[in-house]
Amino acid sequence: MASLTLPRHTGFFSGSLPTRPTLRYAAPVKVRMSLSESGPSIAVVGVTGAVGQEFLSVLSDRDFPYRSIKMLASKRSAGRRLTFEGNEYVVEELTAESFGGVDIALFSAGGSISKEFGPIAAEKGTIVVDNSSAFRMDEKVPLVIPEVNPEAMHGIKLGTGKGALIANPNCSTIICLMAATPLHRHAKVLRMVVSTYQAASGAGAAAMEELEQQTREVLEGRPPTCKIFKQQYAFNIFSHNASVLSNGYNEEEMKMVKETRKIWNDKDVKVTATCIRVPVMRAHAESVNLQFESPLHEDTARDILKNAPGVVVIDDRKANHFPTPLEVSNKDDVAVGRIRQDLSQDGNKGLDIFVCGDQIRKGAALNAVQIAEMLL
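Below the sequence we write its predicted structure tokens.
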């Protein structure tokens, strides 16, 4: 795939996780010999952005069958040429007429674009998988993590001529619930306390580039360039840059509260979160404290997580080796470690876990493509 805009300062592993990650370079371009005549026609909206580029990477990695693919972006990006799986495509301007004959549209162009064009696409018979927050809390729109609540998509199918909107949850919510849900099913979570350590990737390719630039500037004794964030990011941490609401929580934190309740279909579960930006290039980490209705021993929890789809356990106390953002960068699985009994809660009714997941991958593009795969 050409024209990748993301800095690739990432770790790589294959199979089981190594004790020490090694850096990789960009994978060779994959060439698809032929398109699938029986596959759906797809469109990628916001294709030149960070998540849009990752959509293409995931589609290729998973051999998603499609008979045609349309590259859509803003007027500013229209006319750019992208090479994908050995074929060259011209980026088209997103308009109301872009969705004729499109079966599935993967959206990652921001909430305002989704609000304007998502319903238009759905009216034309396209099933829209939207990565923005535009429709997440709409009662009529399913909010889906395929490993967690696939039943939310009941009745949405290709080939019926009926369009639909499906929302991708927030990246922090996805990463958290991939680990918390298998435990919730076993012992029922009553309260969840989350602290996040969120990478530059969550703010897009420009933020990743600024972190890299700032790091060089600070090491060279120069003042850091602060365009994406209002303060120095390199060698610093600060509260997530989302707007702070009247209750003192920021929007990112409230997304975790509201989305968890919707995905779990449990309005009574208590959730509180503190979201922090850390100077990591890619992949988020989260410290999660869980209070259960029933006792759950840490050994049982570890076995549950080892058998959970999309989850890998890295929990080597002897070697003090636990999940890191570098190890999960560019990977599909969410890694869980530091699995231990919460000593402040009696009767084995509390656990602490530490979770890492690639925000661009499982936190965005992969989850959306998995939703699309469920439609096939």
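The radius of gyration is 21 Å.
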